Amino acid sequence: QHMGIQAVSYDGQCLRVTAPLANNINHQQSAFGGSLFSLVALAGWGLLQLKITELGLDCNTVIAGGEVGYQAPVVAELVCDCRLPAAYEDFASRLLQTGKASILLDTGIMQGDASAMTFSGRYVVRQTGP
After folding, report:
1. Which of 69, 70, 7 is CA-nearest to residue 43?
2. Half-sphere exposure of 96 (CA within 13 A, CB side)
3. Residue 116: exposed, middle, or buried by beta-carbon count in 10 A (0-12, 13-18, 19+)?
4. Sign for the pseudo-dihedral over CA of 30, 32, 37, 39
5. Chain segment 71-130, per-residue pLDDT in tens
C-alpha cells in the first residue's frame, strides 16, 4: 500500500505491475533500489499465483534465490512486465505430477527503450492442498 503497487494488466502470459516514483523515491530523486527489487520480485510471484489459480491448485510460492542488476537510475513511474518463459509448460507438468516445482523468471524495469534494472529469480512452488 505504501509503495503504491498496482497490477495493471494480465493477458495469461504477462503480468504488468507499476508503482509511482513519488512513493518510492530516494535522496537522489530516483527510485529506491529496495522498491525496484520488491516490484520485480512481486511481479514474478504474482504471475505464478495467477497461473497456479488457473491450474486450480493451492500452493505456497517462495523466492529461492536470484540475481539482480542495476543499469541506470529510474526517474519515472516504475513499470515491470513479467512474462512466462518457454519452460513454463514443463514447470506446470512437474507441479501437477509431483506437487513441487521450480522455475526461473526473468524480469526487470525499463526506462524508455533502455533497461534500468534486471532480475532473474528462482521461484519454488509447493502444493499445499488439492
Report:
1. 7
2. 12
3. buried
4. negative
5. 999 999 999 999 999 999 999 999 999 999 999 999 999 888 889 999 999 999 999 966
Between CA 110 and CA 125 the distance in angstroms is 27
Q: Beta 114-127 vs 100-111: how paired, if at all? A: antiparallel
Q: Taking phi first (over 0 means left), then psi (-120 to 50 degrees means alpha), and beta for anything else, what does residue 65 get?
A: left
Q: What is the pLDDT of residues 42-57, one digit of tens each?
A: 999 999 999 999 999 9
Is the pLDDT confidence value at 29 over 70?
A: yes
Q: Following DSSP, what letter does each residue of the chain receive, concatenated?
A: --S--EEEEE-SSEEEEEE-GGGGB-TTSSB-HHHHHHHHHHHHHHHHHHHHHHHT--EEEEEEEEEEEE-S---S-EEEEEE--TTHHHHHHHHHHHSEEEEEEEEEEEETTEEEEEEEEEEEEEE---
Taking a C-beta distance cutoff of 8 angstroms, is the pair 18, 80 a contact? yes
Residues 6+ apart with CB under 8 A from 8: 16, 17, 18
